[in-house]
Design goal:
Order of helices and strands: HEEEEEHEEEEEEHHHHH
Strand content: 25-35%
Structural class: alpha+beta
Largest sheet: 9 strands, mixed
Length: 271
């Protein structure tokens, strides 16, 4: 019983509104609180006079508050970047971070001038980025998983050094990914069509399998598949000889049923 109460306590305290979070305990000052279209936005300042904002709706686990503070400290620690603004958006799952740099220096060049909408990062299980840079009127999508700063800076450097080649290469990969996705969808649709067609063919066999004073009767599907397999292996056999082969293989079905199967699967009709 104690364990159950303890678990409930953890859940209760981990699911809290940000307005109820003790920011002072983290040496964070709440400068302003606004409600914008049903969402709350907090303007915050840490002990080092570094500003950031958090926008959220409802409640979420306090662990994400800790993650916000860790990411804030991490980005502010980048020595090559001075931050004009950094905003955290609490999503249903994870976080979105928008950084507008005042300066972003890479090998003596201010890359911040190539980022009109800043840099956008996403955090769920790992940190990812997805934003655009513009250089020489060429718009380039910068997208991927953040591994470390050197690799990230190298990616930006490649984009800035040759925008057209970078954009073309990225567009090629995006087109390839799109085609792969379309191929997967086509395979799924093709499988469904084949399955639906097989159902229709089986329905046809059942409805046509009638006799004197007897309504439609199903043919065992395993028997149908065995007949189809044997016919594919022996396409040149006459129907009479094929019937003899089926008898040797102990396949039990009437002559009428055999002719129905051959007509439905191989377009072989009685003369």
């Amino acid at each position: 019983m104690k364990r159950f109460v303890f678990s409930l306590t953890i859940i209760f305290f981990s699911q809290i509104p940000l307005s109820a979070f003790d920011w002072a305990r983290e040496n964070i000052l709440v400068n302003k609180t606004e409600n914008i279209n049903g969402k709350t936005q907090l303007e915050l300042k840490d002990a080092s006079n570094r500003f950031f904002s958090v926008k959220y709706h409802g409640v979420f686990d306090s662990l994400r508050v800790k993650k916000i503070l860790i990411l804030k400290d991490n980005f502010y620690s980048w020595k090559n970047m001075s931050i004009r603004s950094i905003k955290f958006f609490v999503l249903e799952k994870g976080l979105k971070i928008v950084i507008i740099p005042e300066k972003f220096m890479v090998k003596g060049k201010n890359y911040g001038s190539y980022m009109p909408a800043g840099m956008v990062f996403y955090f769920l299980k790992n940190l990812r980025f997805n934003f655009r840079m513009i250089k020489d009127s060429v718009s380039m999508k910068i997208k991927g998983r953040f591994i470390n700063k050197p690799e990230f800076f190298m990616l930006l450097e490649n984009a800035v050094s040759n925008p057209l080649a970078f954009a073309n290469r990225l567009n090629f990969h995006e087109r390839l990914n799109t085609l792969n996705s379309q191929l997967v969808n086509l395979k799924v649709k093709h499988y469904k069509l084949l399955k639906d067609f097989e159902f229709l063919r089986y329905a046809f066999l059942t409805l046509r399998n009638t006799g004197f004073l007897r309504g439609p009767r199903k043919i065992n599907y395993k028997v149908i598949m065995k007949v189809v397999k044997l016919r594919m292996l022996n396409p040149k056999l006459s129907v009479d000889n094929f019937e003899k082969l089926l008898e040797k293989q102990m396949v039990k079905l009437s002559g009428h049923e055999l002719h129905l199967i051959l007509s439905a699967y191989f377009n072989e009709f009685d003369n």
